[in-house]
Amino acid sequence: MSAKPVWPLAVARHVLQTVDSTNAHALRMAPSMTGPAWFLGLEQTAGRGRRARAWASPRGNFYATLLLQAMEPPEQIALRSFAAALALRDAFVALTGLPNAFALKWPNDVLLNGGKVAGILLESSKGARGYDLAIGVGVNLIGAPPASMVEPGAVVPVSLLGETGLRVTPEAFLDQLAAAYDRWEQVFVTQGFALLRQEWLAHAAKLGEVIKARTGAETREGVFETIDPAGNLILRMSSGPVAIPAAEVFF
Known about the structure:
By secondary structure, the protein is α+β, with helices and mostly antiparallel strands. The protein is about 25% helix and about 30% strand. It has helices spanning about 20-30, 75, 80-95, 160-165, 170-190, 195-200; strands at about 10-15, 35-40, 60-70, 100-105, 110, 115-125, 130-140, 210-215, 220-225, 235, 240-245, 250.
């Protein structure tokens, strides 16, 4: 395990014993905040994932939100999900020393030994200056929902403890994640998305393989070719490449 990282300068840290949702709490607090802040909930009573799905939130797992003021257009702000995915992978690798065990699943999951260990949820609201952005992160540190809880074809959930035997506290994981995210945020704001895109693709799950992308009632199947400079999934189908801005991906 690596040494404790240095907490990012000028980023606040709030640890809450219990909270409805760290994203909801962060956005409620946004008007009174003067800078970036992490909110760690040791327990969530109304956690949620993408598409407003309930997110099981037992104690011992990780639920946190980074609140930022973002000045870019919404489509650029959304690219921070890739920064969060890269930061998560960096944090996992720093803690486990297992770089080959972790992969990134488009658009916003992290896989461990092929199972889902973490997810990311971005939400925003119009603030006094720009947008108040909540980058929510959920990590199965010690436990994962049973496979029966996920829909057929979806990636099976796993936990860090179950897959590696490593027990990490939420507070220790936040130390690693906050430092890692700060590094990628600096890259994003100073150099743009290109380097994040390159690094994300270097760790992408199923790149070059056949996958399914489902949008509403429509399911497309093709080769996962790349992600484009706007973060869209590029799926090569018999008719040619198709750019998909949002979808559920199945392997």
